[in-house]
# Entry
Amino acid sequence: MRGRTSSASWLFYAWAAAVVATAGSLYLSEYLHFVPCSLCWYQRIFMYPLTILLGIASWRGQKQIVPYALPLVAIGAGFSVYHIAVQELPHGPDGPFCGPVSCMNDVLNAFGFLTVPMLALTAFAMIFACLLLARRAAN
# Structure
């Protein structure tokens, strides 16, 4: 059994990724005063509950959260992919999900490719991988 990571550890890693993503999102909007666009809000809607759900599941060692968390992760990742496409692909005006703040705004562009939706997608992908590994470790 040595060298094998437990399902509780993978749940903790998933929770840590959700906490970092949530804290980063709140830092950008509350401290740096960046106004999130509608697509950013949809991504937040699917990330923020993961912070609480995965935190409780990690603390209690409940791997049963995996089938309930995976849809949140998948839908949030879908919004991230769509948001990246809106920002990066040539097209006309903003898509139907964009509200008063343009989804084309690129408030953070580190290294020429690291945007807010790219960071969100990375967090969703990390959480997805950790949840799958938690499920595998539990079996």
User: Anything to note?
Assistant: The CA atoms of residues 22 and 96 lie 25 Å apart. The chain has a mean pLDDT of 85. The chain has one domain: 7-138. Residues 7-138 form one domain.
